[in-house]
């Protein structure tokens, strides 16, 4: 499959490309569900920021994926929905029932319990302990 799924601790992270046909969406959902069970993932982040169009089939697939993941003990966050996609879903009356969303991937990872560690300042002073 062309959609990579990366494991970060007990969270699976994946992203969907701009063009997502029905077959790819189905294969993606099946593979991700299998990985959730096999790796005992407690969370899944699906970044859809590159999707410009979400049709009724993809919306249903995301809803079913979220339901299957919950049944397997994992929480799914769909992150990065573009405003035109949200508008289209609302205009068509399509609801992502049971799907949690986040503004972006970083926010989604925070919801799943990951926290951004601040970088140490570059060229900062080195601390030494005296003993």
UniProtKB/TrEMBL annotation:
**What InterPro entries has UniProt attached to this entry?**
Bact_StressResp_Reg, STAS_dom, STAS_dom_sf
Q: Where is the STAS domain?
A: 1-112
- Record's protein name: Anti-anti-sigma factor
The organism is Streptomyces carminius
């Amino acid at each position: 499959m062309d959609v990579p799924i990366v494991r970060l601790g007990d969270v699976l992270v994946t992203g969907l490309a701009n063009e997502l046909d029905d077959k790819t969406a189905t294969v993606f959902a099946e593979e991700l569900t299998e990985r959730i069970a096999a790796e005992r993932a407690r969370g899944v982040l699906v970044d859809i920021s590159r999707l410009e169009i979400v049709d009724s089939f993809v919306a249903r697939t995301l809803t079913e994926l979220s339901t299957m993941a919950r049944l397997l003990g994992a929480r799914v966050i769909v992150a990065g929905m573009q405003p035109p996609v949200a508008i289209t879903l609302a205009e068509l009356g399509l609801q992502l029932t049971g799907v949690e969303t986040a503004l972006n991937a970083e926010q989604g990872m925070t919801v799943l319990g990951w926290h951004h560690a601040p970088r140490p300042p570059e060229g900062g002073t080195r601390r030494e302990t005296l003993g």
